Amino acid sequence: MLTRLRVQGFKSLHDVDIELAPLVVLMGPNAAGKSNLLEALLLLSRLVTEQTLAAAFEPPLRGYPLEAFSLPETGLEGLLQQDRAELSLEAEVQPARSPERSAPEPLLYRVGVQIQPKTGALEVSDEYLVRLKKDKTPKQKPRIERSGESLIVRQGALRGHEPLRLNHTLVSDRQFTGEHRNPDFDRLRSELSAWQTYYLDPRIAMREPQPPREVKDIGPRGEWIAPFLYRLKESEAYRKHFLAIGRALRSAIPTVEDLDVDLDPRRGILDILITQDGTPYSSRVVSEGTLRVLALCCLAGNPWPGELIAFEEPENGVHPRRIEVVADLLGSIAERGQSQVVVTTHSPTLIAAMLQRATAAPDRVKLLRCAQRGRETHVQELVPMGPLFDDEEIRTSLTGPEDNALVEAMLLRGWLDG
Asked: Which of 129, 159, 182 is the last residue of a domain?
């Protein structure tokens, strides 16, 4: 579980330091920087798992590598005139408990990346890894730390040096592995490699024909949802999860009577069938909202859950009366204790539902308000203090200059008084 994240120099996140919970809701108007926080999580995971920095900055990360670095006051032109730009990601992580071991100690990991704007060359400028005590102070000497123009690496009783400005992180280097000499490297890699960021695409990706394949996830855009469901259905060991997903979908959308996935024997492709009012409908024609809810049901019933799953505006395309169902599904994923959930939203209905959860379990649910000031994103914890829209501060946190339509909709629905 990710318990703390500090981001410096990444897009609009010039310097953001946040504490996290099992369920985190990033709220705020459009263009407030919510998506950049999700991308910071994605980049951190990729820096630890990809073989090169260049690969870590490739899609699904948005934009060119240079555009990942915070712009100075003079904008892109000013950035191109600099010799170097730098970003830093720092995370406190509680690795997952394995069945045969007690809970491992928390880890603090930091990585700095520099870019030469004129050439696009990327290099590691800092790397640090250490175990933490309960009071968050280092328990022992760091496994990795910078010393001048090199990195000190401690493997058990051995100490070595690696050059600083490599094109990959040391944690991503598989030569540093092994339970006896490098357990912290392995635990960090294992934890961050199990982070999943979803940008669900029910318009195209979730409807495209797919053949059967051995997947453990629905895919970042939901593109593998059909083979994922088919694998569960056809496996004796996992069929119960397929049936549970069907029950969850019927509970979330009462008009749904059945969920199935069939293999076309002539074309060798899969088709998801959702029965409503006695008629089976293909995933090619059901609503975007239904596919989004189905995706959340799949994640709630996944027998191979990720350690952290992040969503950008999971309520998009979902009927307003179903948004509370989305909140329930997200809550159920986090409450299983196997996955941490981070979502962005500017939906008043979803925030209201999450606020109720935060009030009931403040140590389990955290709402963070994102706001743009100039070129920078600022993030502040939102502490529940009564009805959601009775607080002028909370009203302001949901609106920006570009959100007049949202304000009008809230007024029409009676969510804002006066």
From this structure: 182
Rg (C-alpha) for the chain, rounded Å, is 23
Distance CA 18, CA 285 (A): 41
27 within a domain of the structure (yes/no):
no
Q: What is the pLDDT of residues 9-60, one digit of tens each?
A: 999 999 999 999 999 999 998 889 999 999 999 999 999 999 999 999 999 9
Buried b (16+ CB within 10 A) or exposed e, 382-397: bebeeebbeeeebbeb
Question: Tell me, what amino acid is at 410?
Answer: M
297 is a domain residue:
yes
Q: Which two tokens stand for residue 168?
A: 């990959």
262 shares its domain with 406: yes
Report the alpha-carbon distance of residue 142 to residue 130 in Å, rounded.
4
Please state the pTM of the whole predicted model.
0.88
Beta carbons within 8 Å of 36's beta carbon, 6+ residues apart: 10, 11, 12, 13, 377
Residue 254 corresponds to which tokens in the numbers above? 């009462």
